[in-house]
Amino acid sequence: MTKRSRRTHSATFKAKVAMAALKGDKTLAELAQQYDVHPSQITEWKQQLAEHAADVFGGKTKTVAEPPVDVKALHAKIGQLTLENDFLEGALSKAGSAPQPAGDAWALDTAEKSKWAAAYSALHAQTSSPFL
Hints:
- The chain is built from five helices and no strands.
- The protein is mainly alpha-helical and 132 residues long.
- Helix 4 packs across helix 5 (110-126).
C-alpha cells in the first residue's frame, strides 16, 4: 500500500460532503468511496457543519475591532516631523542646495514655528515614550 500525500480540501467541498452525509441518502462508506475521503473525516465535517449552522443565520457575528487611536501621540509625531523638516530645510538652505517651493506655500513665519515647537515640547514632556 502506497502512502498518500496529505490533501487539503476546500470549504465548498467539505460543505458538499457534510450536506450529503446529513441527508442520509447514502451510508458513510458509500459517501467515503464516492468522494474519496475517510469515513471518520466525513463524520468530523458533519459535526462541524451541525455546530456552526447557526452562524450562517446570524447566530454569532464576528466584529472587527479597530485599534484605539492615540491622538496625543499622533499630534506629537506631527510636531516632531514638522520640526525635523524645518531644521533640515534650514540646514539645506544654509548649504545652498535647498529646493525652493513655488511661492511661499511651505514658508512658516517665526511665530508659527515657535508655536509648533512649544506644542511639540509640551506633548513630548507629557509622553513617556523615547520614540516621540
